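Batch job 17 of 40 flagged for manual review because the log was empty.
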Amino acid sequence: MARTMFRFRVRPDLLDEYREAHAAVWPEMLRALHETGWRNYSIFTAPDGEVIGYVESDDITAAREAMSALAVNERWQAAMARYFAGAGPDERLVELNETFHLETQLAAADGRPIAVDRQAQPRDYPVGR
């Protein structure tokens, strides 16, 4: 399962509301994320509005595409639009490259097989797409 981390920015003046919205994500949205292949998904926020997301998925591109086809995702993105700095929920997010993974390096140091599934280059995605 591949690990993916990404970042984007929300309006700092609405950060508390953004956090509150994510403390009570709609059950239908939670199920949709799970059913489309999102696993161990976490969102972290900084006081300046920077948001870091982490997700594990067999195929993040397929998982994103599956979510983008769902009506619940369209409703969620519309509800979240006000929190985004810039033009709205279409603001670009940047996928980050994994630079270090403890378990992978420990396996290599111990001579165990290594299962590495990383992206060679970061990708940009519109938020909510």
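Reviewer: the log was empty due to a logging misconfiguration, but the result itself is present. The mean pLDDT is 87. Unflagging and moving on to job 18.
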